[in-house]
Structure formats: structure tokens, C-alpha cells
Amino acid sequence: MARIRKFIRTVVFLALMGIIAFTLYNLFFLKPKVENLRQLEKLPKKKEISLVISPRAYVEKIKVVALQGSREIILFEGKLPAHINEVTFTVEPRKVGLKNGNALIKVELTRFLLLKETFEISAVVDTQPPRVQLIYAPYTVLQGGSGGIRARLSEPAELYVEVGGRKFRSFKVADNVYIALFGVPVNTSPRDIIKVVAIDEAGNKTIIPLGTGIKKNRFKTVTIDLKGKENLLKPKLHAILGNGEGFSFIELFKKVNEKIRKENKEKLKTIGANSAGQKYWKGRFLQMRGSKVLSKYGEKRRYTYGGKLISKSRHMGYDLASVKNAPVPAANYGVVVFTGDLGIYGNTIVIDHGYGLMSLYAHLADFRVKEGDFVKKGQIIGLTDMTGLAFGDHLHFGILIDGYEVTPLEWWDKKWIRTRIEPIFSD
Ligand SMILES: [Zn+2]
What's the fold here for domain 132-215? Predict the structure, then answer.
């Protein structure tokens, strides 16, 4: 009997010790943390905040308050839902009486009824969206063409031009003055509205329609039948793909013309994002001397095999042919930002002219320049060839804005540059 009693006493004692240890562990060692507290650092006109408590550590209640001067304003107060360690709430400073300026935010977590943990972060309340004053915007732009704006903002902000679902970044040229070059994607409709978007540091957004009209451009459709071109293309397709064993000729062509083309465009976007915030170029861009235009920008290409449509693509540059292995001049002053093999483009050079503007030279034989080189207008940078997805020796010449290929035609035109682009460089 005594042994049983002793056994029970031991069990009770151990259980009590366990409960005490467990409680002490939770109280003193398992501390709850608030992830993404920094979301509260900047408070614009309206912001959705979601705070994650991890580890949850038995947190039951959350209270978020803002202290401004002697005032205390509750931004959120509520229970942490069961099995979800996240609370979401919207902060609208003006609605709750928060003024623009500094505030101290306190996040208070309550667990075990009265145990409290407090986290603090200093915040800036700014409910004033940036004002955008357009200094210059073109009257019209062309589908596949280019444009530029100059704008003054009421405060520092991220500014971009949005057209046809694509964003074109801006560059700061003076205090609160920004310029942006933009391309008009070929598939943009003349009914589309070009927008200027400014987002200040707190996250307040201003969107204004540019008022620039989009003029329709004419693009030719060309059908190319691949039957009989297998011997020329097969080794090229294998080289571009890297492998491709076991695929039929048509499958190989589709992969290169669609999948690889898409990857190459993504790569150009990456290259384009690294443009310098200064203007290297001067005057019009050069077209390769004595060259004949084989194919224009925007051309719709239909690839058939024995008359049956197998793949489509858009030609996003000018094909210029001269003699075999003709010397290729840099179209303008700039810095070489890419030399290498670029899939369908073959051996390619990209020159940065600054402020998002770049030129591209594809299907080359070799390179006479290397990345980082400064090149002069007219300087020979390589020789033409037919590397990549080219059917013959020629130069594929492209103009890129923020990595998007636009028509080079405008950039070859002195008057167009003077009237449409130069105004963005002066007040
Ligand atoms: Zn081409």
C-alpha cells in the first residue's frame, strides 16, 4: 500500500514538475516574434498590413497603437485567429486621426491572459500623393515606336511610363526632375492610354494619363516555308538548343522560335535594366553603310512546312545586308554591355547609350570590342555573319528601350530625334 502511495506521489510530483518546466519554458524561453514589422515603417494614405507572429508562443491578443505627441491611436486590436498566426488589417491614417509626420508604433502581444510583449518601430506617416507636372510629352507616338517625357515631381518618387502592359523606368536628372524614354509595344492598340505613374517613398501612388496619341503602324506579314531548308537549319537549331536529340525538325524549330526566343527576350530585359543614368549618344544613329534592307521591324512571320503553318514570330529589328562579313559600325557613342552568344540572335553585341536606350547587333562573326569598352559612333565593333537563327549573312540591328525592341527607323532620323527626344533634356 505504502509503495503504491509512494508511486502515485512520484507520478504527481513528476507531472507537476513537467507542468512547471513547460510553463517556465513558454514564459521565459519561447518568445513570440513579429515578422514583417517593417511594413509599419511607412504609412501612406491607405495600406494593408499583415503581421505574422512566429513562433506563435500562445499569443492570444494583438494590439497595434500609434503614438503621436501625447495622443495614442489604436490601429488594430483583436484576437489572433485559431491555427493562423497572422492578422491582417488596413491602416488609413486620416480616418483614425493620424497626422503626417513621425509616429511611434507599438505592437503589443498578450499571452496567458496578462503576459505582455511589446515591439516598437518608428514610422513616417505621409498621406500626400506625389504631384506630377509634365514638362514635356510627345503629341503622338507610333506603334512600335519610341517617345520620351520630362516631369517634375513634388517629392522624390519612383516614376515610370506604362504602355501596353509594359513599364519603362525613369531617371532622375535634377532635384525632383525625371526623364523617361519609352517604347510603344507593337501590339498596343491606338485606343490604349499611356500612363505616367509616380509612387512616393511611403507608397502613395499618382497615375496620370499622358494624353499622347498612339498612331497605327503598318506591319507586313511574311510567310517562310521551311521545306528544303532542313540541311541549313538543323545544325543551327541543335547548336542553339544545346541538345534536342530525338526531336523532329519541326519540333526543333518550334522550340527555338518560341521557347528560346522568349528566353532571349527576357535576357534583353535584364540587360536593358542596367542602363546608365547619363546620355552617351549624340545626334542620329547610324545605319550600316551601303546596306540594303532585307527585312523591317514589326514584320509578322509565319513559318510553314509544305504550306502548313507550324510557328509564328515578330521580327523586332531591321535586317541589313551588305557584302559577306561586312564591317559593323557602332550606331552611336556608348558602352558595350553585352558580347556573347544570345540564342536566336547568335553572336551579339549590345551597346548602352544611356537613359535606357541601347542598340543591338546580331548574327555577327566575331567581336572587336569587349564588355565595358567605350565605343565611338561609327567605330567597327564586329563583322556580319549568319550565326543564330539567320538564313544568310546579314546584320540584325535593333534599338532597345529598357530592354524592349522598338523600331530603329525613328532613331536613324535626325529631325525626329531633334523634335521628339531632345526636348526631354531641357526645362
Ligand atoms: Zn533580323
Answer: Immunoglobulin-like (2.60.40)
